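Dear colleague,

Following up on Tuesday's group meeting, I ran the structure prediction for the two-component complex that the binding team flagged. I've pasted the input sequences exactly as they went in, so you can double-check that nothing got truncated or mislabelled along the way. The structure tokens for the whole assembly follow below. Feel free to forward this to whoever is handling the docking comparison.

Inputs:
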Amino acid sequence: MHGGMSMGLGYALSERMQYDEKGRLLNGNLLDYKIPTALDHPELKALFVETDDPSGPFGNKSLGEPPAIPVAPAVRNAVLHATGVAVNSLPMNPQKLVEEFRKGGLL
Amino acid sequence: MYDIASLYSASCAEDAISELARDPEAVVIAGGTDVLIKIRAGELAGCRLVSIHGIRELEGVTCRENGDLHIGPLTTFRGITQSEVIRRCVPCLGEAADQAGGPQLRAMGTIGGNVCNGVTSADSASTLMTLDAIFRVRGPDGQRDIPISEWYRGVGKVALRHAELLTCIIIPRRHYEGFSGHYIKYAQRSAMDIATLGVSCLVKLSGDKARAEQVRLAFGVAGPVPMRALTAEAGAAGLPVDEAIEKIGALALADVNPRTSWRASREFRMQLIKELSGRALRQAVINGGGAVKC
């Protein structure tokens, strides 16, 4: 769960592939492709809702992708709630937020 | 994986200098945290290396009788951070060194390598700028002292000539005594990253700690080389601390010239300079025992 949430946070806040004008990847390494480190994570909490899924074997439900999927929309909505600015592209990194906050008249 | 033609392991500084003098294309390697990356990336492929790793005379931090600090260039980032002398006299330099890379890099990378590599993002550089450090270099023709203000000559270029070795980083007593400081590394994540912007601030407070008598402000990544913000320093000097904190960021914008790169835009860096200068000064004031309102 935490691993999936971590992937979601990277997707929401920092990870992106960058290309030059000829289409060459600029950040094809783990220094410039910003996967969050342990120091970048807030405390993660996961709560389970037990269900019986009749379409899965023995009633189980997959848990690979679900924790990764809702993180970016949740962060985006939290930013909107806190600032009134709706950011509609990823990643919501600080440079993007400065640009959006300028457009929104916050800075 | 590493295309290295030869490796000469020098036994002492003199030995390294004479080997470098013999081979005009040899490259000095200390901790290797920059050089090995350049070799692997192909930039220095097939190079001949002169290793100064492990030369004891170039390691360690001492406080001289006159109060000047002598930092051996082979002192690692970790060695700087853990040095009792650094903690007592210039704790902000130890904190800055502790921001570089991750634990493994800080155990190998050296402060001398950090400044000889000549990059603007070096985490120790802006604090050494505020301290007006002096670089003592030795070559076949003898020794000379280079103030840090004349050290950086361009991207990846420093005043060091071939066959010259940085042998000591000197911080004169009057450059640090009575000052408190703070370094902020702004990067895209909290570890394993290169600074998007680095800000270092030193302040000397008045006797009642109400005014910022002297301020020194320096940036990494605000231009092609680490730089002092002299307009901001002059404008903030003598002001009550809260006023200095409020004004210094806007003043600093006149001193800097960051560029747009694919890592960050000029506009974003300008925003960081404006915002972080005041934060660095604020923490420097607090570290000096001053009280701030905001």
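Chain B has a mean pLDDT of 97.

Cheers,
M.
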